[in-house]
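Morning!

This is the sequence you dropped in the shared folder:
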Amino acid sequence: MNPDYLVGRVIGNRYEILEIIGTGGMATVYKAKCRVLNRYVAIKVLKDSLKYDSDVVKKFNAESRAAARLSHPNIVQIYDVGENGEFDYIVMEYVDGVTLKEYIQKKGRLPWEEACDFAIQVGRALDCAHANHVVHRDIKPHNMLLTKDGTLKVADFGIAQAASSETLVAGSGGIGSVHYISPEQARGGYTDERSDVYSLGVVLYEMLTGTVPFDGANPVSIALMKLEQDPKDCRIINPDIPDNVAEITMKAISREQHARYQSAAEFVRELESVCGNGGVMFDYDSSDKFETKRIDDRETKNELYSRRSEKRKHQQNKKKEVIAAVLGVIVIAFLTYFIMAGGPKEYQVPDLTDKTLEEAEQMLEEAQLKLSDEVEFEASEEFEEGHIIRQKPGANQYVKKGRKIKVTLSSGLEDGQIEVPDVENLKYEDAEKRLKAAKLTCKKVEKYDDTIQYGYVISQSPKSGQKVSEGYSVILYVSADIEDPDEQAVVPKLTGHTESQAKLLLEQAGLAPGKIDTIENAAEAGTVISQTPSAKTGVEKGSKVDFTVSTGIAATPTPTPTPAPVLKRKTLTITIPEDAGDTVHIRAVANGKTIYEANHAKSEGAVDITVQGSKDANVQVYIDGKQVADKVITFD
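The structure's back. Tokens below.
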């Protein structure tokens, strides 16, 4: 249905729709006047093509109510959420200005001070949202409104999350979303606040250079670039960018979440340390000329403006919109299938905080990851000596199989001064003596290794060269001996195998399955994800080995759709009266709902109105507010 049909109507008994001010893949935005509070508002109405999708409508309302909790000068305020039987809508603050995308397109690259100022404003908005557990997930300059006093306001908080995959690319500006989404969004992975930080980093990159980090012929190629390539340093494109600004920008758009700023607040602090507290003023007059100026305490906003921006009208050709939507759905479906089906499998990093190295190594082995040899030490009052303070990548991140996880250990209340000696490949007794000579202790952990002679050190943790405090206990992994092959067995590695394969491996090793637990996990269903004792441990034959099997992630059941009634159509012809004016307004109502509303020229003579339904329809037709027909249409 043509979105113009709402213009002139009053919804919610208070909002008079004045004009269309924007359209997108998910909704149409109207300028309206609130008759109760006598102010202008913007009303976002869910598109006809989506209003029958119960999941989208549910998310649209739930996320919008969540976003309504946000109150910040850099966030478009949501006033109300409602529905009137015909459509769902959101009432929000009306912002008179231009989008940041339009501003960038007019000016090209921005002065770095101005770009940083805008990024700080958006970062503060994100910090407020994240503190209220709202993640935007579609940060881009198209969603940022720039007022005439230089204030940036971020729109669509909570609304982006309600959008299905097709609405992210359909309609005007939708394809552009692929330029700004994070790599984890491109591959369909876990997203959080750092995904918004990435998108804001891309916006800052575009403001500084006039271009986005990755561009291609289609969304698929752009998404693959994000997954496989590092972006070109922004200083190569614009050498005038200060080094510290460039470093902040490039860190924000790091491919891996752990390498970025871990919060919007951290990102803002870095930018503020470069830009200070100065502001940027903005002017957009009716001749489409932009003016920006750095301000100080002696200047006022009123000195910078003499003219007001002309009203911007956005109307799109309906046929082109439909074509764009269909193409968008096809592209995003292919993108999702290609990346999700063909991309590399990733593994979740466990939380190693406050664990010992020995415990961390066991947890990582179960997660099919490894502990990095590069162990750092740091004095800590909170964590006991030898316990992990932090890790990189962080907990719950998804990484490739076998990825090495770096950890920082507590050295106690003060930094260590003793350098750990190299004792690998030494006989255990000799290694112990060398550590004692360095005023350190050791802990012996026996592991079977057929490549290392019995009683010799396979590896040590921490590695040589690390500085620890006096008395620190170095873990020595020592090659174990099987004294009596007839009575001893080596525990095989079960993780990564199926339950039946694990049982067969135990049987071949002369061992038996013990307690078998199941747990919901990202690993493939039926796969062993942990075991006790760990692999290569020497035990008596016949011993039982406990293990845990993944059940996979439970799929959300797809509700059985209710069959739609079979609709039939009939045409009702309305003759325009001879005494009518040159233009008439025709409105048709069927069973209490408006089914047609449009303006027509008197010269047309008659207008055909299509009525559809499965039952009888009581239809009234009005011309310029006067009823001219009242008929019952029967669908046989």
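Headline: Residues 150 and 469 are 55 Å apart (CA to CA).

More detail when I'm at my desk.
O.
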